[in-house]
User: What shape does this take?
Amino acid sequence: MRKVLKAIGTSLVAGALLLSGAAGGVAGPETVSAAASKVPAAKTPTADQVISKVTAASKTLKNFHIDVTKKQDVQSGGVKISNTNTLNLDINRLPVFAAAGSVKVSLLETSYELYANDKEFYYLVDGSELIADSEETYEDSEDGSSTDAVTDGDGEPIDPDAQYWIDLEKEEWETFYSKGQYDPAVMLDSVKAYKKSMKVSTAGTQTVMQFTLTDPAAAKAVITLYDQENLWDGETLQPKSVTWKVFVNSKTWQTEKLTVDLNYVLAADGAKDTYTTKIEAKYSKNNKTAPIVKPAELE
Assistant: This one.
C-alpha cells in the first residue's frame, strides 16, 4: 500500500509526463414607528460558543456517513499533475469506533474497499494486483530473481481472480481518514489552537466557522494533518496558506460540511514543487447508518 500512497505523493512528480429587518405597523388609529417595532437581530455566536455546542452535539452521534473529495494539483517546473481521491465511509463512533467504505484514486484509475477499527486497518485488493506488485519487486531486486507462484502470508499461492484483505499501517490509514481530520467532535480539538483566528458567520440555516493561516508554523500543523501522504523524509515544507471552514446546522449543531484549502511548497535537492489541495467533506445519515460488521475473512 505504501506504493499506492507514494504514487499519489511527491514521487509522482519526478516521473510524470502529464501536463496538465422587520417593518413597523399600525394599531388602530395610532401609528407605531418602525424603530420601535424592530425585532432585535439574533446575535452571531462566538467561536467558543460554536465549539462548545458542536462538540456537545457531536458527542451524541452514534454513527454517520461521510463523503470526502480531495483534489490536488502539483506543479514541478513545467510539469503539472492532478489527482482526485474520493472517500466514502460509514463511521460508527459509539460504543466503539469502526469504519467501512471505499476510496478511489483517479490518477491510478483504481479503488479499494476499506475496513478499520481502533486497532486494525485494512484494504481489499485483487490477487492480480498483488501478483503484479510482487513481480515488480523481483524485477527491482539486485539479483533479478523471480518466482512462478506468489504466495500469501500462509504460504498459499495467490489466486489472481480472488480478493485479499491487506494490513495497513495506522499512518497509512490516516492518509485517508483520521478522527483528527474528520470526526465532528475531535477535529475541532485539532484546530482549537487557532481559535483566536476563527470567524463566525451565518448563512441560511447554517452557522459557519472558519480561519485562514499564513503563519508558517501554524499552517504547517494543518498541512501535516490533512496532506501527510505527501510529506517524506528529506523534503522541506514551506507553507503558503491554509483556509479551514466548517458548516454546521444552526438548530441541531451537527456538522454538515467541512472544506480545507492548502497551499504549500515542498523543497528538496534544490527543486521546488508547489501543491494545491482542496478538500470537501459532506456529512449525512446521522444515527442512521447500519452497524459495521468486521468482514468474516478478518475474524
Summary: The chain is about 20% helix and 40% strand. The first helix runs from residue 2 to 7. Confidence is low (pLDDT under 50) at residues 10-32, 137-141. The two ends are 21 Å apart (CA to CA).
